[in-house]
Amino acid sequence: MKATSSRAGVFKQTVKVRQHQLVSDEPLNEGGEDTGPSPQELLAASLASCTAITMEMYAQRKGWDLGATEVTCQYTASERGCPTRFDLVLRLPEHLSDEQVARLKVIAAKCPVHRTLDGEVMFDERVERVALVS
Description:
By secondary structure, the protein is of the alpha+beta class. The chain folds into two domains: 36 residues; 85 residues, GMP Synthetase, Chain A, domain 3 (2-Layer Sandwich). The protein has three helices and five strands, in the order βββαββαα. The strands form two sheets. A three-stranded antiparallel β-sheet has the order 1-2-3, with no helix packed on it. The protein has a two-stranded antiparallel sheet with strand order 4-5. A hairpin with a 2-residue loop joins strand 2 and strand 3. The chain is elongated, with a radius of gyration of 18 Å. The mean pLDDT is 93.
């Protein structure tokens, strides 16, 4: 998996993933132009959407009709060295049984983004100097 971010303004970034393109920016009060979600908001969006998709895939395999579902992710970035806390709310239809809800809660925690954030993360960073094109 690969994403490439390129400068498109003061803090505005054009992010390319496969054939898709989106914009990331900082809010006005942070000096950005608020033309898109901030990188941290994209992280919350990634966790929320991955959780929802993981539950939907599981429900499809089980033949369950989930109907309307919603996952909300809220988090506040912590200081370096302190744990970051994610608050996930799974809104599931009333018609699901207690057993189905319990199983979906377990499955939600197994989404790839959740597992990545929950595990040890390592970074390989390098700098490549290139001629800038105007």
